[in-house]
Amino acid sequence: MTTQAPTEPRKVVKTRGIEAARARQALWLLLPTLIAIALVAGYPLWRTIFFSVQEANLTSPEQARYVGFQNFWFTTEDGVGIGFLQDPKWWQAVKNTMLFTVVSVFLETVFGMIIALVVNGTFKGRAFLRTAMLVPWAIPTVVSAQMWAYMYNDSFGLIGQGLLGGQALLADPDKAIWALIAVDVWKTTSFMALLILAGLQSLPSDMYEAADMDGASKWTQFWRMTLPLLRPALLVALVFRSLDALRVFDIMYVMLGPVNAASTSMTGYARLTLIDNSLLGVGSAVAVAIFLIIMVIVVIYVTAFRVKFD
Amino acid sequence: MNLKRTSPGLYYLQRTAFYALVIAITFYLLFPFVWAVITSFSKGANLFLPPAQFLVSEKTVENYVQVFGNPAFQRGLLYSVIAAVGAVVISLLFGSFAAYALGRFRFAGKQVILYVILAVSVFPQIAVLGGLFTLIRGAGVFNNPLALIFSYLIFTVPFTVWVLTSFVRDIPGELEEAALVDGASPLQTLFQVLFPVMMPALVTTGLLAFINCWNEYLFALTFMSSNRTVPVVIANYSGASQYDQPWGPIMAASIVVTVPLIILVLVFQRNIVSGLTAGAVKG
Prior knowledge:
The complex is a heterodimer. By secondary structure, chain A is mainly α. Chain A has one domain (87-305): MetI-like (MetI-like fold, Orthogonal Bundle). Chain A is built from 12 helices and 2 strands, in the order H-E-E-H-H-H-H-H-H-H-H-H-H-H. Chain A has a two-stranded antiparallel sheet. In chain A, helix 2 packs antiparallel against helix 9 (218-246). Chain A is globular and about 75 Å long. Chain A starts with 17 loop residues before the first helix and ends in a 5-residue tail after the last helix. In chain A, 42% of the residues are buried. Chain B has helices at residues 3-6, 8-40, 51-56, 62-69, 71-104, 110-121, 126-138, 145-170, 174-181, 186-215, 218-223, 230-236, 247-267, 269-281. Chain B folds into 2 domains: 3-61, no CATH class; 65-279, Orthogonal Bundle (MetI-like fold). In chain B, helix 5 (71-104) packs antiparallel against helix 10 (186-215) and helix 8 (145-170) crosses helix 10 (186-215). Chain B is flat and about 70 Å long. Chain B is an all-alpha fold. Chains A and B meet through helix 1, helix 2, helix 3, helix 4 and helix 5 of A and helix 2, helix 5, helix 6, helix 7 and helix 8 of B.
């Protein structure tokens, strides 16, 4: 490659500028990605939106019948509400998912910040802690769900039997959500900590020396310097974590089973309707609702905090 | 100010508190995993012992023997590897083409494409589940690993494009200009000039995408009926009866699928942090 001289002079395209040629080349290079995205995201999303206004069954989707917004809201003549928005289980799933998202993302941010600040200091064993930090993050979600389900077990689990004296934590819907939050916090705090740590390490150290000289306490330095400067990194991490938490599925499904997962996570509710109950129309309507909720939250984040992605 | 000299008492108190925090954090991060490892080496009957006795009870590799002898688990490993490797190879190929175009070329509509790709990466997977299900069944690949390779592209392609684009931008332009002047086509430039330079980025991105595929649950659960991947096998690992959860083998299986990941992550530690921050903090 290095020694070979070009053997033939290249044809120069004179009619169109080099810019136009580059633009055409760029399109060819992008084509596989664009086709893949269209096939795997664009087309299925369009199908989901299409089916959300149809009465359709998963086993025979070709027999779909247009029903307007009845999948969302419809009351029969006998006064029975059959739209999913009339199902209290859906609203319970929404409530639980919101609680899960707000509490777990908040705790992950706080713990992540503490861990990042500790690892950012100098002490013996720093390299070890930095490595240990990666362990929960590397463990598959299903595996961590099973590990915790085992610890929560009421007859021999370390937490269920040992700490709580045989309470079946996961069987009680009011307490189960907190048990699930604990799993998510354990699993993803390290991700938060990694991102915050990367942000911390990009802060200039001479600024802190100057602050030390001026006699600012570590506490003041944290609130007045570290936090404001970390804001951009922190916000992007927050957005990504929140969106992940909103579409949570694995933890609930593995630890609670399909039916209880349906009243604990929006995705669980959608999957139960769509796949287990084969209700393609209603399930798609639920999926559209989740999609809209997530998009609205993205827009709120981006506009309220002026998150920049580039 | 030097606390060590001015007030040694306070200094040592602070140091002790700090190390107590370090130990607490380490314990918090590692304990559940360590406990799973211990359980994986324990006999089923000993699980009922109180923790102290459980710790010193007889250890065995029985659970691992059982797990590796389980045909469902063996198949699970095979299908997980096929699905993850397939999706990662395709995404790296597509992703590097796209990243080269997005990182190096100037053309109209680039910003729009970048935002579309970013939007897809925050997509809730559930929004495409029904559509993908009918598509996969229509194409006759239900219960075939091809279905997973295809569906995993929804998160691996945007991720690889996004991370590789930020790496491509950081490569000095002279390298590629020299190749262009020598008359190399864009593909030649990409494969012979940029790929060698991008190797660390490709390895990191590929590894992170691999981890995501390896962990994927929703699609694997929905698009496969008997050819399950490892996470689905672990979630459904059942004992003789519904009420008899074989925790020993479950933990052994969990350790088996986790240890390779932990080793990979530890080996590529530095790259992973840069990959994650390129993918997440920059956007």
